[in-house]
Amino acid sequence: MGSCNKDQSFQNPDLSSAKTSVIKPTGLPSGLSPAEKATDAQKQSTSLQSVKLGVAGNFVILSKTGITDVYKSSITGDIGTSPITGAALLVSCAEVSGTIYTVDAAGPLPCRITSASMLTTAISNMQTAYTDAAGRSNPNFLNLGAGNIGGKTLTPGLYKFTSSVVIPTDVTISGGPNDVWIFQVAGTLNMSSAVNITLTGGAQANNIFWQVSGAVTFGTTSHFEGNILGKTGINLQTGASINGRMLAQTAVTLQKNTVNKPQ
Q1: Which residue, 77, 94, 172, 227, could crosslink 14 as a Cys pair with Cβ 3.0–4.6 Å?
Q2: How distant is the alpha carbon of residue 191 from its chain centre?
């Protein structure tokens, strides 16, 4: 059984080939030796700054229009909705190891905490983070795989997609603990059932940001890594899991999911 922590303290803190392909930054100057190219590529990836989440970073799920749920999900971290009434937050106290925040007294009892002012700040920070991620320029990768990134190993950098992204097969995100990945997706983001994203080399979910204009959908029993900054709905189908945050400008839909805030 989960529990709701009532501590209100906060700290202001993102069909492929059968062979796995390792993706590295393009656009390096010509005429360089292999060693110089490797050094220049590393400089490009390490110069990418993280997306600041502010108070929104205290949440594992934050939504403007509600959180629906098919019992029983397991959620580790704080969740909240604003500006919509707490009546639109349909997760039970038993499902959350953290705190449930609402703007009014209509949220789930007995654990919900009313904190309208803090939630307003968190939502504002969420929207600022979305704008920041969407506005990053000079991508290292443009329309990689024509939007199909299944089977790839993704190195640090800024990835820009001018349409939708699909993940039909497993993906590896490889890099060090201080590296940053930002994925700008102009369309939808869809991951197929039973597909997994795996982190290697010390890569941290805290440093991975998926800025998505369209709906996000994770298939049954799939596993995702990173922070989702979603302009539209974020939908987890039955048994899907995420190590990251779901920060949605509309609704979040859960169906017996496992949701963990990254450390």
Answers
A1: 227
A2: 13
* pLDDT more than 90, % of the chain: 82
**13-60 residue pLDDT tens:** 443 333 445 665 654 444 555 444 444 445 555 589 999 999 999 999
Amino acid residing at 26: T
